Amino acid sequence: MSAPEGARVSGREGSRVSVREEGRVSVLEKERGVERRPPAGRGPRRRRVTDEHGRRVRGWELALRYLLLLAVLALTVGPFLWQLSTSLKGPTEDIFSSPPKFLPGDPTLHNYKRVADTIPVWDYAFNSLKVAGANVVTNCVGSALAGYALARLRYRGRRVATLVFILAMLVPVEGIIIAQFTTMRELGLNNTLIGVVLPGCIGAMNVLLMRGAFLNLPYEIEEAAFVDGANTWQRFLRIALPSVKGTLAVVAIFAFMFSWDDFLWPLIVLSDPSKFTLTIGLNYLHGTFANDERLVAAGTIIAVTPLIALFACLQRYFFRGVGEGAVKG
Fold first, then answer.
1. What gap in Å lies between CA 62 and CA 159, rounded to an integer?
2. At CB < 8 A and 24+ separation, what contacts does 26-31 make?
């Protein structure tokens, strides 16, 4: 006898029905607020830690990585925090105690006022800001133009020009500083802030950074713009330059740091104390026979603060440099 219609259910259909029924029950349980417990004998699954390639990271490897990160953090940030702590300590606190006392007992800003009373620190900082700002503008503009020409334009001698920039990085600054000083003196720019700016207005490393960023851009985008009638300047300003903002931020930070921290070249070029930069002016905080470490620490913090502020403003663009040149779908 044949079974009544619908009485037989195949294995697959039965499994589907059971799955559907389980699905309905789970939905009803969710609506009623009932949580389903895992099967007996099975505990909650542990969350696996993986790296960027999806491979499992063992516990001891993860602990070792964090220990190395903490060691690097202590070596890099530790001296700055110690200088900050020293600058906030009063004259009655011993900064050479053993074991060292990291936190100041009675924090005070009197050391920063003493720096302003000892030297015209704000005038020196303004001179450094003018030099650093000019270096940032000239490096960003000049490096972007030179990098685009080396990466995108077709002309004879392009490889030779790239080689010249690479060789320029191998020449130490101390080897050409006498020639630079003679050139500034012949141009009448000795003892001027323009003479401080000119030798570092365009850095070879910044040009090569911009060249690498422009090389990573797809050629198809510029070819499409060329077909639409865009000339070289339009392709540079509207297509290539907006795509390398991260590298421009890197160039701006490097140019600002180099010019702000430079000590040897301004010391050679400048002789008028009213035109001294901050790095030269802070040298007057060192006494001939004795040093006040609290005063020097306060001057150091004043000099480092603009660098921290600049990086905080440009860090979003700084870390974008890795993904530049990608085409968004």
1. 45
2. none
Report CA Rg, the chain. Answer: 32
The alpha carbon dihedral of 286, 287, 289, 290 has a sign of: negative
* pTM attached to this predicted model: 0.74
**Phi and psi of 231, rounded to 5°?**
-85, -175
Residue 286: beta bridge partners? Answer: 291
- Interval 114-166: pLDDT, tens: 898 888 999 999 999 999 999 999 999 999 999 999 998 888 988 999 999 99
Q: Which region among 156-160, 191-195, 295-299, 309-313 has the lowest average model confidence (pLDDT)?
A: 309-313
What is the residue-wise DSSP string for 153-181?
Answer: ---TTHHHHHHHHHHHHHS-HHHHHHHHH
Which two three-digit tokens encode residue 257? 């740091």
Gap between the Cα atoms of 174 and 268, Å rounded: 12
Q: Which residue has the tokens 């007057």?
A: 284
pLDDT tens, position by position, 18-60 = 444 444 444 444 444 444 555 555 555 666 677 666 777 777 8
Peptide bond into 99 cis (omega under 30): yes
Q: 329, 251 in Cβ contact below 8 A?
A: no
Looking at beta carbons, which pairs linking 321-329 to residues 24 or more positions away fall under 8 Å?
A: 321/213, 321/246, 321/247, 321/249, 321/250, 322/246, 323/246, 324/213, 324/216, 324/217, 324/243, 324/244, 324/245, 324/246, 324/247, 325/213, 325/216, 325/217, 325/218, 325/243, 325/244, 327/218, 327/221
Q: Where are the alpha helices (DSSP H) in 187-292?
A: 193-197, 204-215, 219-227, 232-235, 245-261, 264-269, 278-281
Q: Structure tokens of 92?
A: 């009655």
- Closest listed residue to residue 185, CA positions, set 172, 198, 201, 169: 198
